[in-house]
Amino acid sequence: MAIFSVYVVNKAGGLIYQLDHYAPRADTEKTFSFPLDLVLRPHDERVVVAFGQRDGIRVGHAVLAINGAEVNGRFTADGKDVLEFLGNPANYPVSIRFGRHRLSSNEKLMLASMFHSLFAIGSQLSPEVGSSGIEMLETDTFKLHCFQTLTGIKFMVLADPRQTGIDTLLRKIYEIYSDFALKNPFYSLEMPIRCELFDQNLKLALEVAEKAGPFGPGS
Predict the structure, then answer these.
(1) What is the predicted pLDDT for the residue at 216?
(2) φ, ψ (nearest 5 deg) of residue 47
(3) Which domains does the chain have, with CATH numbers?
(4) Is 79 helix (H, G, I), strand (E, B) or coil?
(5) DSSP code per residue over 156-169
(6) pTM score of the predicted model
């Protein structure tokens, strides 16, 4: 079981903290000869597999590196178009690393803002007055858990569906936020959290939660 990431969103919907705690690696690197037996297409400023699966490479995986050098979206490390490079027989044999696309900082900001809006919509759609909004979203590979404080700060945890104790963890994160961010004289409300003690105690709490350890008094 694992906890994948933590997001903290302010009451205006801005992302003020994000931590990738555990990212499952599913990268696959293979050496190919010409012609490439996978169909690649540009998608959202990156090159992804549109057709053909083999040796752990799946549809939707992005091209992450070519000949050991990380690609930059749709371009190689030296600025060449990835599709044009892979369409030239002179560049073969070529080693390509495929895997799940890593979210950029801008994409994380956008997703946090989108969830903030969905949270508000969920609260408004409720047939009961005073709904708390979305507390959990579930997929086949992860669950998103959300805890909103009385001041509107949202703490979100993405975890393995089998991970237990997330409700307790969310409140522990709120406690850590109160102790090491709000009590920091250099921290301004609603602004990004940059505090080493907050980072250290948050990571410790995540490790305890992954081991299913309880958060008792004084923990």
Answers:
(1) 46
(2) -110, 125
(3) 1-21+102-210 (3.30.450.70), 25-97 (2.30.42.40)
(4) coil
(5) EEEE-TT---HHHH
(6) 0.73
Pairing of strands 46-51, 28-32: unpaired
| Cα-based angle 82, 84, 85 (whole degrees, multiple of 5) | 65
Amino acid at 59: V
Nearest CA to 123 out of 114, 111, 135 is that of 135
94 vs 72, which has greater pLDDT? 94
Residue 2 has a CB neighbour count (10 Å cut-off) of 15
Q: Quote the CA–CA distance of 173 and 217 in Å, as a whole number.
A: 15
**CB neighbours of residue 22 within 10 Å:** 15
Cβ(46)–Cβ(63) below 8 Å: yes
Angle at the Cα of 50 from the Cα atoms of 46 and 54, rounded to 5 degrees: 110
CB atoms closer than 10 angstroms to residue 88: 11
